[in-house]
């Protein structure tokens, strides 16, 4: 942003957008040349601008919350020219939405590969739902009673709990008392027991569930060939089964465990079917169901093919995902409890880390996590390296050649950027010998994964390597064209 005499008005929209997305760094006193490379203009009075910034950001008529401390705002000297760097963090869910002015419907922004954009009312409502200390599945549904539950599902769950926790004291309880202790039912204002949202989702019938969650939909698809649409599929709305989360988990996991060609283990002469791969699949499937926003549009989709398994759910992560250091913050804490009691899901918060660790060790491919901003959706992709027979010999191959090609193209982009520090779509097209559409898609994926940052508007966009504030400053110092 270039403004040598005052704060640019767009700074607050960008601050809101960074805070509501994944954070970022705002540079004051830096612009772009016609060839999209960065250029330092410098600031005439950076000390006054810094003071003006602090006065404004602490004014709730300007923005509703200040997420910064003194370490996040710095004056940097580059060959005698001063710029200001402002490191805006990703806001905690309890602080969102971060908005400009006093009306969140008018002043809430997010950021995508095209730049800052104004959030829809639906996106803002998602932030407010996640803001609550009580998770959405704790709601007591006082218009419903225990007739919404599938007795077959409850019986199946209780049998599983007896296998995993044979000494548990709840086994002697009647169903209603069991559901109350579990949290699937709770007392309403009329002092009577009613289903909770979690209980309805876990044990209810689909036609009852959609009364509270109108967009609720569960979809499992199995594809054995790229040319086929699907070979096997079941959905929650078919009326052929209960349509609830627990039964979907059982059906989907059974399908996946039969499809995965992971070799069994033999310990003391006994065949052990439960391998690390199966544990990863259980963790990924449970994560998908536990962290879904069931009020959000679109449903949960699980897809299997010989090349990859994908888990898609409405709702983005409520916390920033730093794989090894991630702590748990589930969107539905009661659902997590239900799964934990039958030994499914990691309550310690290491579930995502274990998925990455085990899958990388076994499949030699890194799981891919995508957060889609436009429709608040999370996708986890597990790529499969399959074992096949060829001339009576087994050879392990990666069936997704285009995935390998994409990875190599991304590596080339990152490698070239380590040399040049910044790049453009046209430069990448020339390096890779691909069209502009392909270059934009690769750059978008790198932006979404947090490996590069987009600067400038759509017509004058450049991309820069930056994992931190120091990365921005280093890039500026080393590679900005001087006048």
Write the layout of secondary structure elements.
Elements: H1 10-20, E1 24-28, E2 30-32, E3 38-40, H2 46-57, E4 73-78, E5 81-88, H3 104-107, E6 109-112, E7 115-118, H4 121-131, H5 151-164, H6 175-182, E8 185-187, E9 193-195, H7 197-203, H8 206-212, E10 218-222, E11 232-235, H9 245-259, E12 265-267, E13 270-272, H10 276-290, E14 300-304, E15 308-314, H11 333-340, H12 351-363, E16 368-372, E17 377-383, E18 385-390, E19 393-398, H13 401-420, E20 422-423, H14 425-432, H15 436-448, E21 452-455, E22 462-465, H16 469-479
Helix pairs in contact: 9-10, 10-12, 14-15
Detailed description of the structure:
Helix content is 37%, strand content 21%. The chain has a six-stranded mixed sheet, covered by helices on one side. Strands 1-5-4 form a three-stranded antiparallel sheet, with helices on both faces. A three-stranded antiparallel sheet has the order 20-22-21, with helices on both faces. It is globular, with a radius of gyration of 26 Å. The protein has 16 helices and 22 strands. It is α+β, with helices and mostly antiparallel strands and 483 residues long. The chain has three domains: 10-120, Schlafen, AAA domain (Methyltransferase, Cobalt-precorrin-4 Transmethylase, Domain 2, 2-Layer Sandwich); 136-389, Heat Shock Protein 90 (2-Layer Sandwich), CATH 3.30.565; 401-479, Orthogonal Bundle (Arc Repressor Mutant, subunit A).
Distance between the termini: 18 Å
User: What is the CATH first-level class name of the largest domain?
Assistant: Alpha Beta
Overall number of structural domains: 3
Structural class: alpha+beta
């Amino acid at each position: 942003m270039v403004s040598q005499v005052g704060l640019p008005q767009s700074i607050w929209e960008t601050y809101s957008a960074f805070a509501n997305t994944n954070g970022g760094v705002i540079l004051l006193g830096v612009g772009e040349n016609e060839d999209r490379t960065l250029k330092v203009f410098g600031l005439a009075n950076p000390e006054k601008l810094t003071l003006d910034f602090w006065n404004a950001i602490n004014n709730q008529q300007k923005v509703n919350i200040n997420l910064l401390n003194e370490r996040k705002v710095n004056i940097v000297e580059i060959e005698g020219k001063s710029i200001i760097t402002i490191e805006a963090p990703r806001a905690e869910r309890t602080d969102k939405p971060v908005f400009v002015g006093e009306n969140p419907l008018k002043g809430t922004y997010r950021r995508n590969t095209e730049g800052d954009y104004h959030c829809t009312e639906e996106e803002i409502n998602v932030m407010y739902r996640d803001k609550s200390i009580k998770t959405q599945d704790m709601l007591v549904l006082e218009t419903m009673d225990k007739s919404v539950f599938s007795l077959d599902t409850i019986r199946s769950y209780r049998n599983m709990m007896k296998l995993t926790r044979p000494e548990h004291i709840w086994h002697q309880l009647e169903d209603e008392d069991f559901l109350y202790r579990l949290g699937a039912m709770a007392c309403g204002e009329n002092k009577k027991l009613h289903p909770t949202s979690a209980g309805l989702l876990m044990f209810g019938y689909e036609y009852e569930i959609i009364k509270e969650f109108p967009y609720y939909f569960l979809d499992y698809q199995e594809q054995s060939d790229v040319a086929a649409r699907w070979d096997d599929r079941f959905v929650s709305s078919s009326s052929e089964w209960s349509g609830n989360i627990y039964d979907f988990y059982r059906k989907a996991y059974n399908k996946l465990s039969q499809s995965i060609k992971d070799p069994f283990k033999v310990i003391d002469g006994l065949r052990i079917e439960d391998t690390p791969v199966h544990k990863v699949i259980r963790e990924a499937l449970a994560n998908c169901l536990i962290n879904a926003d069931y009020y959000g549009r679109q449903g949960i989709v699980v897809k299997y093919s010989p090349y990859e398994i994908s888990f898609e759910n409405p709702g983005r992560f409520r916390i920033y995902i730093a794989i090894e250091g991630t702590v748990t913050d589930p969107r539905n804490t009661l659902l997590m409890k239900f799964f934990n009691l039958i030994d499914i899901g990691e309550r310690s918060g290491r579930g995502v880390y274990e998925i990455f660790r085990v899958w990388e060790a076994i499949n030699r491919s890194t799981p891919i996590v995508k957060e889609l901003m436009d429709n608040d959706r999370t996708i986890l992709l597990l790529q499969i390296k399959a074992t096949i027979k060829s001339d009576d010999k087994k050879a392990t191959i990666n069936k997704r050649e285009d995935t390998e090609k994409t990875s190599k193209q991304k590596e080339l982009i990152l490698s070239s950027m380590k040399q040049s520090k910044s790049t453009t779509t046209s430069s990448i097209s020339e390096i890779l010998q691909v069209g502009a559409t392909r270059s934009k898609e690769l750059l978008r994926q790198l932006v979404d994964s947090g490996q590069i940052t987009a600067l400038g508007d759509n017509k004058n966009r450049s991309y820069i390597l930056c994992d931190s504030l120091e990365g921005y400053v280093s890039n500026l110092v080393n590679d900005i064209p001087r006048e």
